[in-house]
Amino acid sequence: MRLSTTVNGSTRTDDVEPRLLLAHYLRDVCGLKGTNIGCDTTSCGACTVHVDGESVKSCTVLAVQTDGSDVTTVEGLAATRPGPDGMHPVQAAFRAEHGLQCGFCTPGMVMATAGLLAENPKPTEREVREALEGNLCRCTGYHNIVRAALAAAESMAASE
Amino acid sequence: MTTVDLPRGSILGTRVQRLEDPEFLTSGAVYTDDVVDERLTGAVWVTFVRASVAHATIASIDASAALAADGCVGVITADDLADVPAQAPMMPIFPAGMAQPLLATGRVRYVGEPVAAVLTDDRYLGEDIAELVEIDYAPLPVVVDPIDSAEDETLLFPELGTNVVCSRPAEVDGDIFAGCPVVVTGTILNQRVAVAPLEVRAAAAAWGADDRLTAWVPNQGAQGTQASLAGMLGLPVSQVRIITPAVGGAFGAKVGADPEAAVVGWIARRIGRPARWVETRSENMVAMTHGRAQVQTVTVGGDRDGRVRAYRLHVLQDSGAYPRYGAMLPTLTLLMAPGVYDIDRLELSYTSVATNTTPVGAYRGAGRPEATAAIERAMDMFAAEIGLDPAVVRRRNLLPPFTEPITSKGGAAYDSGDYAMALDTVLAAADYDALRREQALRRERGDIIQLGIGVSVYVEITGGGGEAGASKENATVQVHADGTATILTGTSPHGQGHSTVWAMLASEELGIPMDKITVRWGDTDLVPEGGGTGGSRSLQQGGAAVRQAARELVDVARARAADRLEVSPDDLEVDHANAGLTVRGVPGTGVTFAELAADEPLLVRSVFRAPGATYPFGAHVAVAEVDVETGRAELTRLIALDDAGVVVNPLIAEGQRHGGLAQGAAQALLEEIRFDEDGNPITTTFADYPIVSATEVPSFELVTTETPTTYNPLGAKGIGEAGSIGSTPAVQNAVIDAVAHLGVRHIDMPTSSMRVWSAIRAASEGTEH
Amino acid sequence: MIPASFDYVRAGSLDDAVALLAEHGDDAKLIAGGHSLLPMMKLRLAFPTVLIDIRTVPDAAYVRVDGDVVAIGALTRHCDLVASDVLRAEAPLIATAAGFVGDPQIRHRGTIGGSLSHADPAADLPTAVLASDAVLVVLGPDGRREIPVADFFAGYFETALAPGEVLAEIRVPRTGPNGYHYEKFVRRANDWAIVAVATVAGRVALANMAATPVRAAATEAALAAGASAAEAAALAAEGTQPIQDMHANQEYRGHLATVLTRRGLNAAGIA
Question: Is B52 touching C (CB cutoff 8 A)?
Fold first, then answer.
């Protein structure tokens, strides 16, 4: 099936099987391997990307269902709001607060956090925890991820 | 509390942000499934067909429909692996007949055991075609519970006549509880949990023109994985090269190599085409080794004033179907059994048995959390029996502070510790007395939300193993003519930040900026020896080796610089600002390491040897709120003091603690691998298995003290597992404490709402025994 | 994990979807957000051979006041229910329950029509819609018909939708902004309910207490007869047949139903 999408700002057309999952489309067709797959049940959120500006789990979206959509992955996030270090403020905050260890959940966690802050620019700690309930991390105990999200909210508000 | 003086301006001890993060954050790290390498071009995709029953003989395997399907390259079963030697037991003390074959041979012993491998042109076809392989099973009786297994009525290996993998009887004369006015006993379940790294298992393999196998495998130490893979395939170690991509978490379950990786390697050689495999999460949950899985019987005896005199622990270890590291866990549990306490008489024993379940391996802490869980529950049971505050009882039994090694009654050589300081400090940080007052108020009012306070004090063992099984590790430091440096390490990070910390240690000695230092590991051609990362050993051995190599490199450079500058080596000192050496007191008159490297390669390989393992310690306080109407327990605070000696990078050390705290709390509150009575796993996805999420844990309150060890020049002990060791019993104790006034004495983990509610009801009806 | 192969067609309208269902027969399934269907297909518990995508059909995602009801288009996403000012003012139970579905990513994708058609007895929206005494508007080969929600849930993952029918609209009686509550008991925040209670306007519905969401009939009758919330809630588990699983046995579920019902009624302002 013919699929026309804009991925990280570039429009492309591919011929894909209807059952191709968006996560595999991004990884195997577009070569964007930052998006990881950690489970089978829409539980872990490692595959989170933005479709038309909203966070979704790309393991549970058919690639053909993004026809005509704008998809942003972790590789394309910084370009949407580059900071002085070439990173998006959420990415910079994850580094500053040590919000990642093995890095596997990180692309999804970063995209979920960016999605949260787009909808709720000044979340409380509880709101951050609830907004990230669909993103699992086995390394950080979430402590520094929550701090990173709160720090990113502050830095984004300050640079508005 | 000891404060270590670091040199003015030292980078050590500071919160350096990780060097590896920009890549991880902007393009993602390159995990095994992400590897793009010309050696893997045209790889065949491997999908395993796994046992769907827990115990059966394999009557037949019909692959004809699969082989006839478009895109099928082949189907491999045990019959095809005739050239593979019989598998050797992982440990010499295990019966030889209990080793897991690469593919099930004649019989399956757990749901998820690999039976066949389907080879296809791509991943999607693999799932389709694997469904076409028909396996006919003749069911056998199933044994799931280790207590039943120990009866030896249903045998997994009938020719051996027993399910016992290994055991150790207690060595005591007479009744150790004689003369104890108070004796309390109980059975404590240290339940089976999933290791669940976010990255599942994977492998990619190619047989090269050099007649060697090159395998990309997520692991915790390439050299151990190389030995394991070579052993499984009957190849000399020199014929296997391991390359370690980024590893998405391991927690003990990626030590060595699993049978699936060996099959992938075998396929690459047999069909002359590279092969790749990535399991699904559903496979991971049934086929990656699980952790913990002990039934502990504890008895504690002592005086009414709170002095504990005698402690008995018997561990029944569930090894799963084929003994792996899990069968050995009780040896560490018994070694650490008395923990921080001064107890006169011990009676320690274990039995490890096989069951029709997923094999059990190492999981964060591996044997030590189980020891702490047992003694810390026993302390609470004893305190409840005599009606004293559990913190007071602990305080009364702690070993006194020591700075020279002592030998515990469990047989461990503790290097340094001050357990009373740890307990007192954490109680003060938690404002323990205020918490008890709040608890009393709520009890008095009969609140629906009751407060529980749990305490644990622990000591654990880190850096016990290492390169070639000894407490040693190697590092190579090389300075290049362009002013950059490379470090080769035998440790293997998977989240611990070695790239950053090893660069800090070398930069400190050489003055080379951290961003010019590259750390490499995990390629056995590049680093043929190494002990990998496990048992919280990396900094104290691998990091110490980096510092030692860097200092030796300075000595080599000094000799060369002395010749070149025609001065005495003794007159040269490191010029940190210029990354070189200069004549003492005359800056700018020297030579840089880069200039020396331009003349002749400048590198040193050094092996650091530690006198032995180190023993970090700490104390945790957990605060839980329990809804006594529904039984729901919520962890509201976790205050943790973890003393692992000198901290090199607090940012990273704190992160290690946070992760351990969450995992430990998750075992107490949520997580448990379950099987039905037929051995069918019922927690096979992240929807069924409640891996802890951000909403079930609070932000943690960390208290840091630094009691150095003398076993390495950094003064550092291991921090990787500490959080998971103290937190589990603290949280479990807190939940039980919240309902103790209702008559509840014990609740097994996980303290699910139904378990808590049932315990309250049983206590109120007087049916609890 | 990956779904088995299927053909994929996009419907241009709900009427078109009805025609496509008729054309492809029993092996066809509708897909919208896909967050109920795709997980089943990935685990190979469902294997339709044709997927008819209705996600982008026009004029099927809306929330608007229509006389004495709020009309909700079946393709309205959970996140849009949560954010709807109309719902907050007129039928807030639906908006509140939608906020408990899954996690933010799932709420960006899943739809109310999909959730109701999937008919998971542990799900949030079916329970809230049942408590709301809504009417479901269905399009089929024979045109449009209305199904009272009390008749909609037919069994475990089964509805009164005939083969070839499409859920088009949910008509929820206006209740005003107060007097409702959704009480969900979970292990982790984004899990399915172990038990949940939805209450509004003196009605009480329970999640995961039977093969379908069910009304707590004895509780409602007691309330109507003037019983206190505590007295009425004590009857909540009457007539239910909860499942037994690793989270809860039947007895514990029954107990939870009574506690959660009392709390739900109290929170809704019933003493």
Answer: no
Q: Please check whether residue B26 is in contact with residue A91, taking contact to mean a CB–CB distance below 8 angstroms.
A: yes
Q: Cβ separation of C190 and A134 shorter than 8 Å? A: yes
Greatest alpha-carbon span in chain B: 90
Q: Using CA atoms, how far apart are residues C74 and C189, in angstroms rounded to an integer?
A: 25
B124 Cβ under 8 Å from any chain C Cβ:
yes
pLDDT, tens digit (0-9, with 9 covering 90-100), for A4-44: 999 999 999 999 999 999 999 999 999 999 999 999 999 99
DSSP percent split of chain C into helix, strand, coil, nearest 5: 35, 25, 40
| Residues forming a β-bridge with A124 | none
Q: Which H helix or E strand runs over A89? A: helix A89-96
Stated as kind and residue range, the H or E segment containing B550 is helix B544-565
Query: Mean pLDDT throughout C80-92?
Result: 98
> Above 50 in pLDDT, residue B8?
no
ipTM above 0.95, yes or no: yes
Backbone region of residue B407 per phi and psi (left: phi > 0; alpha: psi in -120 to 50; beta: other values): beta
Task: Identify the DSSP state of B23.
Answer: H
Euclidean distance between CA atoms B542 and B540, whole angstroms: 6
C-alpha separations of C156 from A23, C209, C254 in Å = 31, 11, 19
Q: Please give the helix or strand (H or E) that residue A114 lies within, else none.
A: helix A106-119
Helix (H, G, I), strand (E, B) or coil at B320: strand
pLDDT digits (tens, 9 = 90+) for B615-662: 999 999 999 999 999 999 999 999 999 999 999 999 999 999 999 999
**Nearest CA to B382 among B302, B453, B296, B439?**
B302
Within 8 A of A29 by CB-CB distance, chain B residues are none
Contacts of C203 (CB under 8 A, 6+ apart): C131, C132, C133, C215, C220
What predicted TM-score, i.e. pTM, was given to this entire model? 0.97
CA gap B59, B138 in Å, rounded = 6
Q: Which amino acid is at B671?
A: E
CA-CA-CA-CA torsion for A60, A63, A67, A69, nearest 10 degrees?
Answer: 60
Q: Which tokens in the block code for residue A116?
A: 């949260």
CA–CA gap between residue C268 and residue C266 (Å, rounded): 5
DSSP H stretches of helix in B254-366: 259-271, 281-287, 329-335
Q: What are phi and psi of B486, to 5 degrees?
A: -125, 135
- Amino acid of residue B298: V
Q: Which two tokens stand for residue A31?
A: 């070569």
**Min Cα separation B630/chain C (Å):** 6
Neighbour-count burial for A101-118, b at 16+ CB within 10 Å, e otherwise: bbbbbbbbbbbbbbbbbe
B433: amino acid identity, one letter: D
Cα–Cα dist C189/C204, whole Å = 22
Distance CA C93, CA C82 (A): 10
> Which of C36, C249, C255 should we substitute to test contact with B (largest number of B Cβ atoms within 10 Å)?
C255
- Compare CB distances from A139 to B21, B25, B659 and report the shortest one's residue: B659
Is residue A102 within 8 A of residue B249, CB to CB? The reply is yes
Kindly determine whether residue A102 and residue B494, on different chains, have CB atoms separated by under 8 Å: yes
Distance from CA of B107 to the nearest CA of A (A): 28
Q: Are B167 and B727 in contact (CB under 8 A)?
A: no
The C-alpha atoms of residue B483 and residue B501 are separated, in whole angstroms, by 19
Alpha helix stretches (DSSP H) within B600-710: 650-669
DSSP B167-218: EE-----S-TTTT-SEEEEEEEEEEEE----SS--EEEEEE-TTS-EEEE--
Rg of chain A, C-alpha, whole Å: 15
Could you tell me the sign of the dihedral formed by the alpha carbons of B556, B559, B561, B564, in that order? negative
What is the C-alpha to C-alpha distance for residues A110 and A46, in angstroms, rounded to an integer?
A: 9
Burial class of residue B361 (count of CB atoms within 10 Å of its CB; 0-12, 13-18, 19+): buried
